[in-house]
């Protein structure tokens, strides 16, 4: 926008999320160079990759009130930001809030030793958490005349005496996790107790259990702070002591009772959060582990503190193990934790378990779809980040393994299937394998352009199982996935062949002769291949076909298996010109097809479903041998009688009705086929009439 009327405009550059971080860089930030047309007041280049020069040229000529350059990378250091700001006559007086969390201060590089934070005379709020702040710099900062709020968490400062300089203005001090503090408890308590204007004090510390003895002095100061009378820090309304041990309930009670205006207490990992003195204080916000409110408060408050986040998540997990109502707010907090600590194993280990408990089947259905979508994104991120961590993968798979999520929620199924398959190819834990294959078999059915090379991995599972001869759900799922994968997907069928799938399947078919569920899935896949004209030559293998004929003939074998055997043979024999084996063999197969099919009993249960009838069309031509026609007609009759409304419209759509009518009318059509065709056409006509008449009734009622 071009701004002409000289109005003061306020632009906030949002770069809180990763996307906008990628957008704001040396070249794009250049659009802000013209400080006459565009007047920036608040700028955030948080997490951006930017050089010191680009920063100075584009941003320092504005009269900035606020700047957040936390976690910026590339050339920006604390020193370059401050010298840039100081060099601008505008900023050096206007700036009130500055955040440089996570930056390398690199103070030694400052050329003029007289430049420092104290040159930014208007500064009221300064955030320097996770920097290399030193005692000297702190001394300089504390000489700022209006300093109200200071965050020096996770820095190596050792001496807080400098704070005495700003004791009349400082209202908020965040001094979380100061590990190198080197002051006696009495001296520290003295300094703190002089801060008369202080309303908020954060003196928390997160320590892994192994380092529990390190913070004893700090714990002692915390205890004395609580016990001291309300004359110490008289304005205090918010105190965070999370992680401080051995304070004791008596000290807490004394503190709470002497301060009526308290609004916040941080008590996570202090052992005090379930203290009875807290129960009566309704308006007091508390972080801790005693109840859901405290745990959620901790997750909100400590987003950036990994150790606290992990502790709070462990409590949340405890609270959700028997969750029976949907809690979208909680799920949101868990996702927030995962996003804030994208590479923390500790956080993801617990967070993924929480996600599972918060989304088990019907709970997920009661939550907003967008929330479940971002949950899946986070789960996939976790799977990608911790590819070899068994428990994280297990939690993610458990959460994904839901019909609702896999079927109804929009997400990148291709990426998901890749992650699961990649994991599967490197791991052999049977429970997880079963789950992974179950997830894949649903995913691949939905992914249209599935990368074919991955078939190898599913084949490896089949091979591994077949070698020991077991029949388990992993084997069945792998076979189902391959079957679905190749359904009307010639490219997938081709790579199956290239991956030596046929050789493997021929072996498996023979070694599992008495396992109809296995045979059905194998023959189902071979059917998919037989439907593809260009691949039929690959099936012209006398050994394989003889074996399939045996299955077709065997009256002891289930019709479900013989049906697929018939399908393969019907497709292969339907093209006389493509038949490369012995002609007598083809004639024998055709004869056998007719003789077998006519004896098959009608099946009640659903055995197969078709996405289209197109593969049947060549088989229904009037010139085809009766064995070929009979198989196709029997198949259509089967699915139409099981799900008439669905398949009768497919008959119309794929032009099969016309072919059936032509067959019925042709004088050479065998009477067995005539009979079945008549039955199909009657059923479908009836359903068409039924649908038509109910529609008319509805329309009448509506008018
Ligand atoms: C800066 O970001 C833009 C937009 O994201 C990108 O097209 C450009 O290549 C980036 N430039 C540099 C120097 O990184
Ligand atoms: C701490 O800093 C104060 C000045 O701010 C100084 O007088 C004191 O000697 C320092 N203490 C130590 C132990 O360095
Ligand atoms: C939560 O997960 C644990 C295992 O991680 C399981 O034992 C428990 O049943 C789950 N609770 C719910 C409500 O799903
Ligand atoms: C018929 O098939 C369609 C599509 O596969 C399916 O949605 C529907 O539930 C089936 N109906 C019956 C009665 O099986
Ligand atoms: C068309 C097809 O092959 N569908 C199969 C997909 O896999 C499921 C089992 O997971 C079978 O039941 C379908 O018949």
From TrEMBL:
Q: What family, per the record?
A: Belongs to the zyg-11 family.
Q: Is Signal one of the keywords UniProt gives this record?
A: yes
| Cytoplasm is among the record's keywords | no
Q: Where is the signal peptide?
A: 1-21
Q: Known InterPro entries for this protein?
A: ARM-like, ARM-type_fold, LRR_dom_sf, ZER1-like_C, Zyg-11_UBL_adapter
Q: According to its record, what are the GO cellular component terms?
A: Cul2-RING ubiquitin ligase complex
Gene3D superfamilies xref list: Leucine-rich Repeat Variant (1.25.10.10), Ribonuclease Inhibitor (3.80.10.10)
Domain (Protein zer-1 homolog-like C-terminal): residue spans on this chain: 337-685
Any Pfam family hit: ZER1-like_2nd
The record's keywords, sorted A to Z, are: Signal, Ubl conjugation pathway
Q: What is this protein called?
A: Zyg-11 family member, cell cycle regulator, like
């Amino acid at each position: 926008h071009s701004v002409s009327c000289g109005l003061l405009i306020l632009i906030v550059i949002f770069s809180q999320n990763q996307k906008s971080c990628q957008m704001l860089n040396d070249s794009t930030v250049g659009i802000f160079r013209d400080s006459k047309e565009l007047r920036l007041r608040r700028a955030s280049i948080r997490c951006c990759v930017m050089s010191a020069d680009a920063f100075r040229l584009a941003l320092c000529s504005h009269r900035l009130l606020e700047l957040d350059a936390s976690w910026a990378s590339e050339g920006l250091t604390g020193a370059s930001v401050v010298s840039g700001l100081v060099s601008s006559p505008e900023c050096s007086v206007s700036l009130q809030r500055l955040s440089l969390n996570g930056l390398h201060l690199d103070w030694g590089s400052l050329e003029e030793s007289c430049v420092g934070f104290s040159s930014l005379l208007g500064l009221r709020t300064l955030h320097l958490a996770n920097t290399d702040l030193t005692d000297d710099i702190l001394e300089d900062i504390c000489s700022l005349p209006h300093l109200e709020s200071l965050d020096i968490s996770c820095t190596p400062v050792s001496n807080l005496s400098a704070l005495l300089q700003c004791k009349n203005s400082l209202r908020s001090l965040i001094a979380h996790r100061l590990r190198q503090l080197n002051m006696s408890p009495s001296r520290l308590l003295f300094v703190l107790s002089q801060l008369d204007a202080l309303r908020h004090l954060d003196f928390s510390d997160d320590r892994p259990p192994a380092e529990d003895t390190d913070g004893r002095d700090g714990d002692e100061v915390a205890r004395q702070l609580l016990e001291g009378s309300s004359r110490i820090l008289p304005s205090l309304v918010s105190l965070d002591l999370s992680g401080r041990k051995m304070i004791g309930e008596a000290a807490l009670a004394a503190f709470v009772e002497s301060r009526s205006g308290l609004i916040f207490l941080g008590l996570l990992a202090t052992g005090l959060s379930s203290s009875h003195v807290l129960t009566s204080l309704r308006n007091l916000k508390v972080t801790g582990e005693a109840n859901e409110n405290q745990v959620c408060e901790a997750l909100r408050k400590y987003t950036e503190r990994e150790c606290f986040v992990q502790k709070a998540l462990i409590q949340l997990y405890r609270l959700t193990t028997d969750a029976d109502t949907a809690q979208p707010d909680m799920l949101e907090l868990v996702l927030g934790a995962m996003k804030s600590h994208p590479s923390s194993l500790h956080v993801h280990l617990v967070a993924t378990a929480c996600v599972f408990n918060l989304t088990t089947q019907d709970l997920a259905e009661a939550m907003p779809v967008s929330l479940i979508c971002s949950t899946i994104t986070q789960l996939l991120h976790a799977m990608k980040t911790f590819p070899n961590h068994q428990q994280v993968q297990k939690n993610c798979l458990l959460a994904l393994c839901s019909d609702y999520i896999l079927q109804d929620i929009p997400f990148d199924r291709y990426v998901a299937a890749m992650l699961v398959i990649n994991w599967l190819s490197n791991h052999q834990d049977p429970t997880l394998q079963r789950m992974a294959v179950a997830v894949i078999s649903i995913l691949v059915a939905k992914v249209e352009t599935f990368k074919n090379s991955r078939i190898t991995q599913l084949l490896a599972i089949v091979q591994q199982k077949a070698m020991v001869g077991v029949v388990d759900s992993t084997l069945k799922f792998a076979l189902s996935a391959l079957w679905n994968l190749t359904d009307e997907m010639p490219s997938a069928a081709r790579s199956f062949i290239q991956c030596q799938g046929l050789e493997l399947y021929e072996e498996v078919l023979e070694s599992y002769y008495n396992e109809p569920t296995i045979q059905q899935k194998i023959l189902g896949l071979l059917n998919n291949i037989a439907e593809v004209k260009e691949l039929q030559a690959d099936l012209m293998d006398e050994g394989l076909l003889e074996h399939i004929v045996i299955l077709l003939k065997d009256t002891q074998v289930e019709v479900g298996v013989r049906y697929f055997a018939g399908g393969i043979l019907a497709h292969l024999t339907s093209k006389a010109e493509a038949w490369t084996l012995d002609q007598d063999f083809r004639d024998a197969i055709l004869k056998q097809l007719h003789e077998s099919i006519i004896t098959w009993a009608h099946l009640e249960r659903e055995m197969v479903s078709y996405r289209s009838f197109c593969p049947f069309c060549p088989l229904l031509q009037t010139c085809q041998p009766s064995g070929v026609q009979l198989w196709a007609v029997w198949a259509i009759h089967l699915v139409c009688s099981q799900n008439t409304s669905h398949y009768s419209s497919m008959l119309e759509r794929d032009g099969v009705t016309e072919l059936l009518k032509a067959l019925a009318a042709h004088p050479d059509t065998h009477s067995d086929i005539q009979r079945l065709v008549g039955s199909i056409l009657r059923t479908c006509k009836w359903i068409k009439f039924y649908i038509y008449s109910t529609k008319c009734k509805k329309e009448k009622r509506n008018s």
